[in-house]
Amino acid sequence: MDLTTLPLDITEYLHPEAWLQLFGTFATIGVLAIIFAETGLLFGCILPGDSLLFTAGILTAVSTVNGQEFQPLSLPWLLIGGPIAAIAGAQLGHFLGARYGRKLFDRPDSRIFKQEWVEKAEHYFNRFGPAKAVVLARFIPIVRTFLNPLAGMLGMPPRKFFIWNCVGGILWTDALFILGHFLGSEVPDVERYILPGVAVILVLSVIPIIREIMKGRKADQGPDKNGPEESRPSLSGDSYR
Fold it and tell me: Signal peptide location in the record (predicted)?
């Protein structure tokens, strides 16, 4: 793709097809780089996530999407490299959070950073506890970017974070790659289903969160609702306990 032909509306290049066209022959490396950036660097929150993985999985089975020709991708390389990139990116985010702490989040709102995104990540960390939050955050756009440094800042032990980071990273990447590959192999004109497929994935990823919220509400209405609450990590606190 000729960079001089980029349109003025750069938001078009948040779509996965545009990135894959841009990477061309190096599309597999590009996908892994975006996975790493989205999970390890704060600016990665603006990059495509679920839609990119799903589309990349489709392109392991077909080479044409919406009338555009793409470089075929290797499913084995994605299945191996995707989790590694996701795990490595999240580990970097955890390290940066532990190393630089509150400095990462004490910044004014801008076009690529909103304090509400940090608050959303904190909400899931507090609601589900560190282990569940690290896994579930993988399936929630923006939250998966900010929760990793948040966990580091709040003092989640590196070993515990690594274990659940591996679980979440493997489930997130390989599930979307395999789903995309299966649909690309079995469904004619699969490009019609990219956006609906991503929407279904997002809905399915929200179901466990809704269940946890409902369980939490029932617990709040129980006989011990006035009793002492379990200590939970918070940005206003000092550390993970």
Answer: none
Dihedral sign from CA coordinates of 39, 43, 46, 47: negative
Give 120-169 as a DSSP string.
HHHHHHHHHHHHHHHHHGGGSTTHHHHHHHHHHHTT--HHHHHHHHHHHH
**Enclosing domain of residue 154:** 17-206
**Partners of residue 68 on adjacent β-strands:** 65
In a domain, 229, yes or no: no
Q: Which of 18, 197, 172 is nearest to 89 (CA)?
A: 172
Please indicate, yes or no, if residue 102 is contained in any of the structural domains.
Answer: yes
- DSSP character at residue 107: -
Average per-residue pLDDT for the chain: 75
Domain count for the chain, please give it: 1
Give CA–CA dist 63/81, Å, rounded. 20
pLDDT band at 33 (very low <50, low <70, confident <90, very high): very high
Instruction: Compute the half-sphere exposure of residue 6: CA atoms within 13 Å on the CB side of its CA.
Output: 13
pLDDT digits (tens, 9 = 90+) for 14-31: 567 777 777 777 888 989
Q: Are 97 and 39 in contact (CB under 8 A)?
A: no
- The dihedrals phi and psi of 60, each to the nearest 5 degrees, come to -80, -10
